[in-house]
Each structure stands twice: as C-alpha cells, then as structure tokens.
Amino acid sequence: KVGLRLKVYGVATNLNQLENLQSRHGMDVKTLAHAAERIDKTKHLELTTFHSMISAAGAPPMEDFINSLLYTAKIYFELKKQYPTLSKFNIGGGIPAIGFTDFDHQYFFKKLFSGIKDLAKNYKLNEPEIQFEMGTPVAKEAGMVIYKVVNRKVNSIGKRWAMLDGSLMEDFPDMKVVNDKTFPFWAVNDLNRTTESYTLGD
Questions:
Q1: How far apart are CA 157 and CA 118, in angstroms?
Q2: How far apart are CA 186 and CA 36, in angstroms?
Q3: pLDDT tens for each residue of 41-72
Q4: Which positions ≥6 away from 13 have C-beta within 8 Å?
C-alpha cells in the first residue's frame, strides 16, 4: 500500500495557482497521474493514499485554507475515478492547536467535511478516510522541559532572578526552530500562591 504526494505548499484554488507554488516535495498533477498509472500496473503495489499539505504553520486565512484543501480534494476524486483503491485523503501540516489560538476549529471541520462530502456525492464516489498529520502547530504543544528552581535572588537594582537546574542555552535552539511560536513557562507546584515576576536564568 503506497501513497502519492501532491506538490502543494500554500494557497491554491485553481491549476494555475497550484503550478506556481514552490515546494521541494511532491509531484505536479500531470506527474502524479503518471505515477498513479505506474503503480496501478505494478502487481505488488496498491495506491491507497493521497497527501495534500497546505501548511497550517504558515497560518493561511481560514477560508483560503479550507478552499485550498477542497481544491486538492477534487484532484483526489479525479484520481479515485480511475483508481478505486484510493481511499485516504491525508492532510499534512496540521492545524493550529486548540486553546492556543483563536482558530475556529468547529467551523473549519464543519465546512471542510461537508465540502468533501458534497464532492463525493457529485463524483458518485465513496467519501475518503480523512487523516491529519500533527504538524508543528500541534506537535509544538506536545513536548515539555521541566526545570527545578534551585535558588532565588534579587540583584542590586531590585530585579528578581530564579536560577534553574537546567540549561536554557541548550534547550533554546529547539524552541527557536519553531519560528514565531510561544513557549509558556508554567509552575508545577505552589499554584495556589500569589504569582510574582521573575527573570529565569541557568
């Protein structure tokens, strides 16, 4: 069982826009169709998955995000007409994490799923299994580093410092790789105490 990745990395709602997008991964529509044909003629291979990545990390406007996915879903259905084994519509790049943005997840899913359902009806084909890859907008919330405050001090100008038992310099590159994302620091204990402002150091 194998999949094919469409060359899309950004907003595209027509073929001209799609062909003008730059991406180091994936195939254009013509090349993808040729690859699907070759897979179909290979006895030990079965085409099951179509991958489309608009890139939620690039924070496209909601309507552009949905419409671009629906446009690539049309390409999925055109391919499925010829190759019935195609059954999975895989969306890469993830979506913004719940609770950390004002992204309207309910609206997004409702419009995307209803749009794909309508396409399936129009093409007289089964609805695909829709898969989401995590992507940086979600995966960035999955990791954490726990530090212990080993000392507190106030310098000569009254600035308060909390000294940590870990190295911010070692962990900082991991934070920086995910550009323009917020990494909050939370207290693990003493949450019932009044908060005070500290500068963290190691």
A1: 65
A2: 49
A3: 999 999 999 999 887 565 678 898 999 999 99
A4: 64, 67, 68, 71
What pTM was estimated for this model as a whole? 0.69
SS3 163: strand
Count of residues for the chain? Answer: 202
Task: Give the integer Cα–Cα distance in Å for 65 and 70.
Answer: 9
Sheet containing strand 47-53, edge to edge, reads: 2-5, 47-53, 88-92, 129-132
Strands 47-53, 2-5: pairing kind: parallel
Which parts of 25-163 fold into alpha helices (H)?
29-40, 62-82, 105-123, 135-139
Q: How far apart are CA 123 and CA 188, in angstroms?
A: 53
Query: Strand pairing of 88-92 and 160-164?
Result: unpaired
Burial of 180 (0-12, 13-18, 19+ CB in 10 A): exposed
Task: Give the residue with greater pLDDT, 11 vs 6.
Answer: 6
